[in-house]
Amino acid sequence: QRYQVSPPEAQRRLTLARQAGLLGQRLERERPGTFSGLYVEHQPEFRVIAQFTSNARTELAAYTDNPIYIARSAPRSLALLLAVNRDIAEQLQQAGLEFESALDIKSSEVNVYVRDPELALQRLPQRLSAMGFVKFHTTTGFPQTTSPAQSAD
Questions:
Q1: What pTM, to 2 d.p., does this model score?
Q2: Which of 137, 132, 32, 31 is CA-nearest to residue 80?
Q3: From the centroid of its chain, how far is CA 79?
Q4: In angstroms, how far apart are the furthest CA atoms of the chain?
Q5: Distance from C-alpha of 71 to C-alpha of 54, rounded to nearest angstrom
C-alpha cells in the first residue's frame, strides 16, 4: 500500500530485497575494503543501490548483471563506518554517556545522537571527534525498554 503496488509486485520486491541482503552480506565479507553498503529504493522505481569506494560498476559486475542493481561511488567503505561506529560507542560507554548511533549508508556517514554533543565530543579522542563524516545530533531522550512482567511462582 505504501508504494501503491499490487500484492504480486510487493512479493516480487520482497524477494528481490532479501536477495539483495544476501548479496550485501557477501560483498561485506569479500570486498571489505571497497564495499560501502547497499540499500533499496522503491520510488521512482524499484532498484537496489550498491556502493563502492572505487570502480563501482566493475565491482558490482563481478557479482551480478541484474539491471535492478545500480552501482554508485561512495567515499568510505562500510567496514570503516562500522569500525568508527564501534570505536565511538566504546568511548561514549566508557564515559558513561547515553547515546544512540546509526549508519547512513546513502551519505556514507555515522550519526550519533546524544543529549549534549559538545560534551560527547570532549570525551572522544581527537581522531574520532575530528572525522568529518561523523555527525552529532542533539536528542532529548532515548527509548526506554521495559522488561516483561515477572510471574509470581
A1: 0.84
A2: 32
A3: 11
A4: 62
A5: 10
Contact 112, 88 (CB under 8 A): yes
The SS3 of residue 71 is strand
Tens digits of residue pLDDT in 1-36: 888 889 999 999 999 999 999 999 999 999 999 999
Give the cell for residue 5: 503496488
Distance, C-alpha 151 to centroid of its chain: 38
Q: How would you classify the pairing of strands 109-114 and 100-104?
A: antiparallel
Where helices occur in the chain by DSSP H, the ranges are 7-30, 56-61, 78-94, 117-123, 126-129
Q: Cis (ω within 30 of 0) for the bond into 44?
A: yes
Three-class SS state of 115: coil
**Is 8 strand, coil or helix?**
helix
| DSSP run (H or E) holding 34 | none
CA distance 95 to 67: 47
